[in-house]
């Protein structure tokens, strides 16, 4: 690439980042104005610091030194280490480093507020763990307690998801891992594993070099602020491994592609019974199959999904009934007053903090390879930068579908974690010599958010 071309790309990245910052600032300013419209005892947006579910509260905590240390180590040593270590070492190292980053950010809010009490509030899953005594009876009766006015109505998060989410925490409780601390540890451990899953998928679909370049950015993802601790982080981890196994099976970069396909189906089926919104994962799955030019995994994926459908349906929970009842419940609550016209774009503005400015610049750099990949797709499968651009475009389509649905009015910094983590590999498209600077920008943004705001999840 010539010097002039590099300068043009740099200017384009700066403009993209500036536009993202302006979009977020507008969402904050307009959100504060709109929130002055009082509905009951709250603002119409039902948010403490729009467009985020958060409150302005500058603070430090026991996780602050650890977070600064992890950030510094990954910024300085992450890129060269990711280039040099063996692949077998890199994947678990990415998971371990992402987990350290997530734990340290959570502990900025302290052990109680940041970890042990997060999933025990009145809206959360642990409130209902003791209500589940007979699982088949629970599943048969689950939908009857979703709507406002129903007897023994479920808390908001339990009602807002299929019963698989609550059953996860019931299972932890039954094996002796009860309480908020164990639930948080589960969500952080599974949630932070997304980084390893995405690295595996990028390698299979786009090549090892791009996977290695993406690895440090996946470790220092600002999304870790909300993965620590929210059940949606757990959902993102499960879904990411489903996609990773599908990528391995479709590209046949594993010795057991059929087993990987069944594993992808098992995790995909689980994801659909954890969150209704994860049905749009079919878009990313289709993108993976398109990149691999293979539909061979589909029968085995279906074989993996079926046990979940059969088990839940036979026990008395019919997924479509749960979803349609949820839609009614959703518009009985805050969604009834939250204006669609604001959130249709403010939801996207909130993602600026979730994916970070480096990802914005990376998505800008994906435009040209994406055009080339689409033009040449009839003749050959995209590879390298083109394949990565198609992959992140698939993730962006998932996010836009969720946005247009109207079922994500606010709180998307948490709800869309499953989609957002697949935008992060776009950072691998940034010039390698600039990676240290962009990594520092990602870490700084996450640290500022976590230290200036008290996030609700």
What's the helical proportion of residues? 55-70%
What structural category arises from helix and sheet content?
mainly alpha
Q: How is the main sheet built? A: 2 strands, antiparallel
**Distance N terminus to C terminus?**
44 Å
Low-confidence stretches: none
Keywords, separated by commas or semicolons:
mainly alpha; two-stranded antiparallel sheet; two-stranded antiparallel ribbon; 23 helices; globular
Short description:
The protein has 23 helices and four strands.
Question: Can you give a write-up of this model?
Answer:
It is a single chain. The chain has 457 residues and is mainly alpha-helical. It is built from 23 helices and four strands. A two-stranded antiparallel ribbon has the order 1-2. The protein has a two-stranded antiparallel ribbon with strand order 3-4. It is globular. The N and C termini lie far apart (44 Å). The mean pLDDT is 94.
